[in-house]
Amino acid sequence: MNEETDRIHQKNIWMLKLLVIFYGSALIINLLVEGSFSAINPLVSLILLSIPALLVWIKRWPIFTMLLTVCFLFLFFYFLIAGDPYLINYIFLGFAPLLCLFYLDLRAVLLSGVLYVVSSIYFFYQLKFQTLPEMSSRDLIYIIVFGIFTTIFSLVYTKMMQKLWFRAKSSEEQLRSTLEDLSIGIWTYDLSASQLSVSKGLEHIFGFNAEIFSQDAKQFREIIHPDDQHIFDMGQKELLIWQMNTVKEYRIICPNGDIKWVQNRARPHLNPLNHLIRLEGIMIDITERKQMEGGIEFLAYHDELTGLPNRTMLSNKFEEYCKRGYLPIAILFIDLDNFKDVNDTYGHAAGDLLLKDIAGRMLELIREQDTVCRLGGDEFVVLLTEMDEMRVVKVADRIRASLTEGFVHHGFNLTAGASIGICISLEGTGTLEEMIRQADEAMYSAKRDNGGVYKIYGEIAYTKE
């Protein structure tokens, strides 16, 4: 079935239920008035109910079933009026076209209008003297006009409702398409039925059929990153216990192993008695935003070219090490000796690649807890902790020796010697700026000695001799 026929099929089910209700009501009324149940011949009742019931049950020809049900509805009133020709039953016949409005289908409405006019004319002449003895033949025109007016009204109403439904459906589809394109999913959790309903947008986020959560909502927690499950649990507590709106961001693990960031915006829904009956919300894929935020944060603390920590990160590390007592602290101020020649000879692109290679080599020569920072240009600073002077000198020697080995760029061997100034603080006195300044002075002293060497400034509490 397509969407239209499925909708008609569902309405056929409800119309069949209405027929059963009308038949039951007729039996009760007949029992109260006549003292018997036989308002309509039992065989006729069985036929009127069984044929549409069979068609509904086999789910075949829903449009034909709709039109047949409309006909059977009028047959029901025909046998009802023929069996008990009371005025009230004749009046009930006027409700038949209104009942057919339930379908909101022009075919059903037009058929019911025609059947009503024909039935009204038939019963007017057949039962005129029994039910309408005071009416003349001229009054028939009013009955016909009423039937035509009812039919026209029903057609206009149906057409108007179809347009409204189509607009609403189009808006819903546009909204759904937009939400899916934006990787936004909608979910609703019915507490009484323990049923989770989700939209197609969640499938785009999760990468699999999210309908499995409808069977067991607890499975949703299993796809949340283990380190973020406490965030999800806090959101559940805010919804279920505190009954407040909540916005939580956490990571999920997709079936292919990808890790995505999602934002879950949820709110509790209370009934008029202030009882919690439903949770509903939207889930948004914010992976790109998180990556952008991470990139912005990375650039705030790192050099854009080499990826090394910048001066801000170096300052934070220095303060952290001093507070934790990671002493002694040493600063190595490194300045490349012939970097300008590389730029002038091979171009700035070669110079940038050389800086990246130098950064990579220095990272390989220090421990994980130490820090290599690029101040700018061809100047680097290395922050070492918990090393005596001898070990600091060994690190400086390794760096200087590694840089003099040279680098290969497009078949050319590039060399980058370095002058290194060292400043060591045994007790962590002084500031980072003082240590950098004094290491810089030691570096310039080494550069004046033709470069490629290192010099130690000494304890920063002392003055240079």
From TrEMBL:
Q: Which residues cross the membrane?
A: 12-33, 39-58, 63-81, 87-104, 109-128, 140-157
The record's Gene3D superfamilies line, in alphabetical order, gives: 2.10.70.100, 3.30.70.270, PAS domain
Keywords, in A-Z order = Membrane, Transmembrane, Transmembrane helix
Q: Residues in domain GGDEF?
A: 327-459
Keyword Transmembrane found: yes
Please state every residue range assigned to the domain named PAC: 246-298
- Record InterPro entries: Biofilm_reg_signaling, GGDEF_dom, Nucleotide_cyclase, PAC, PAS, PAS-assoc_C, PAS-like_dom_sf, PAS_fold_3
Record's signal peptide:
none
Where does the PAS domain lie? 171-229
The answer to whether keyword Transcription regulation applies is no
Q: Which NCBIfam families would you find in this protein's record? A: GGDEF, sensory_box
Provide the protein name: Diguanylate cyclase
Lineage start: Bacteria, Bacillati, Bacillota, Bacilli, Bacillales
